[in-house]
Amino acid sequence: MLCLGIEGTAHTVGIGVVKENNGKCSVLSNVLKIYRPKQGGIHPREAANHHTIYIADLIKESVKKADVNFSDIDLISFSKGPGLGPCLRTGATAARALSLTLNKPIIGVNHCVAHLEIGIGTLNNCTDPVLLYTSGANTQVIAFAEGRYRVFGETLDIGIGNCLDKFGRAVGLDFPCGPAIEQLALKGEKYLDLPYSIKGMDIAFSGLLTAAEQYYRNGKSLEDICYSIQETTFAALTEVTERAMAHTEKDQVLLGGGVAANKKLREMVQTMAKERNASFFVPSKDFCIDNGAMIAWLGVLMYNSGIRMKVEESFIDQRFRTDMVDVTWRE
Amino acid sequence: MSKELILYQGAEAKICKSKYMGFDVVKKKRINKSYRIKEIDNRLIFYRTKEESKLMTEARKYGVSVPIIFDVDTENGIITMEYLNGKRIKDILNNVSEEERIRICRMIGENIAKFHNNDIIHGDITTSNMILQDNRIHFIDFGLGEKNCEIEAKGVDLHVLMEAIESTHSRYSDCFDYVLEGYKNKLKGDANSIIKKIQEIIKRGRYR
Prior knowledge:
- The complex is a heterodimer of chains A (331) and B (208).
- Chain A is 43% helix and 21% strand.
- Chain A has 331 residues and is α/β, with parallel strands linked by helices.
- In chain A, helix 7 runs parallel beside helix 8 (263-275).
- The model of chain B has no long low-confidence stretch (mean pLDDT 93).
- Chains A and B meet through strand 8, strand 9, helix 7 and helix 8 of A and helix 1 and helix 4 of B.
């Protein structure tokens, strides 16, 4: 089965074409464009306008790169949510247009679950992991239990990526600020105390953000602050992930989301996994960030498990939570 | 020191069975984590060991069943406490009769009210952290706890349990309602404003 997936939850508009081979995912193409605001945070309408401009060309490009014809495509998949309404609608509209034109079935999928499934689908031996999903908007610890992907821990306020971006903006870095903070942190030497906020398996970052901004205003070295932010937030993320692994008694851990591109975070989670004899997995960077291939792959899994959706039912859902998805494709 | 047997390896601590002055005890040893820098590691281990033993001792004073503490070593992060041979609520809640399940849930709520009445926040109320022995719910693992009189803190405390029940005992989603029933019964003060706060905390989460 060949599926074309359309991602458009926030900054990224992405199209991917994937093929299923014995339950494994082979990605034939995966192209994207990222909206970068000139200043400030994301403006939903501006982002949606950006996606509208590029989406048609990206679709053509992805089909060409996959070296297939439009008529070969068996299924159209799109991100139904969670995300920003105008962006989601742009992706869904394109998906409906394709589905009706090509006369092929359509399916709307959960963006967060897609991050998890692309890891399982593209990596060997990754079968039942605890996912630490860290991106701009999302910070969740997810694992399969009792028929669903359950959220065992999540942020109680802002996502980790958002925390990094907000701090970055306050000190004049460009979006996305994570990579710049990662570089600055390498030069940091002195640890500055920051709030470490864990409630059960949940986590909070806003107090730390305020404290970090305060350090900056008080003239502390930016390198030291970046170092301290990374060490503190990533330690907390690693700790809640480990708690979820102990709680669910699972011995695989998978990273996903844009922040998973950060080497420091990878290193810390990998160390944690090693110390508890668990396996550590991280998909290639193209599949960590928001992308169309993961949307296409989850579409395949859902369709093959018998889920069908009419065009009339292909709504978006800005608040489509991970644990609302009935996982029919797993035992 | 007598022979030690590892009973359980949790995320942050090792639980060993041991003997202390002739008593059966468990030693909870917080493990150094090499993924975090020593500044954070030392701070967390020291602070949590100290806080946990303090809160347990205090909770006991207010009639909450907790293991008796024999010794605290904050430097090495070790708490030596009474050995409980009951069953974890996590392991039994899905397997008992409807009637018993409701009774246990109410009892959980009543006990939480007892420590909330005295501004003790547990910090990690999950069914893994409760042990049923001699028909009493024993609470363990106060490591993320604190003293706090605010409605917010009590709301967050209950919210953690709500999430734990949703993820681990999802077939019995009414469990939490019975917990709240017991909680209301025993709470001195305005239980409704705390329960209202839980709703607010849920809505604060992403996509709620």
